[in-house]
Amino acid sequence: MMLVDTHAHLDEVPNIDEALERARDHGVRAIVGVGMDAASNERILTLAQKYEDFVYPALGLHPWRIENVDLAGNFSLLERELPRALALGEVGLDFALATPQEKQVEILGRLLSIAARHRKPVLLHGRRAWARSLELLMAYRIERSVFHWYSGPLDVLANIFQAGYHVSATPAAAYSEKHRQAIQKTLRNRLLIETDAPEKYRGKASEPQDLRITLQAVSEIWREDFEGVGAQTFRNSQEFFGTLFSP
Asked: What percent of the chain stands above pLDDT 70?
């Protein structure tokens, strides 16, 4: 079994050495560590250097982190370091926040401009803003993007696939009805799997080894073989990121 955790906040995972060893023991062959601001981006880069060919960096500026921060410093780091990262992420919109929507849209536009210039895939957070996020991706001509933990409307999901983009499944696929409905309608070659570690699911903090929980849930939703779905999502990950993850 070869699996890729395409979205994990490794800088927040406790006892990271042990957690990564457990992930290897559970068939995880690569982890995309995502950043949320300058500090976490730097930490992710350090982890990627330490665990070369296992941890791959994605650098971002999360909508939760755009208030009361040094935006110039964050953008400077992204401009400097994104060329050696696998992707831009985590970035996006979150219209459940008090942060003005106009500010979120303006910042995401600047981020997508950087991604487009470097031709990097985008790991997108779109809570309550799925349709607007899709509009922006298309406006900035982003070639590859994954809608992280998609739980939005099914008509928007169809438009996401029409635009050539992907969605991801998390361990919440075991119980979240909206998330399960989206996965049921997801094209087989457009799904990535992730943990979003150390996100809590039903009160329990996750880590990359829990990718098998995601895979099991997808297998049950699709009513397909566990190993076959694992192989499919591994191929999807390699195609999406444009890299051959080490076996």
From this structure: 100
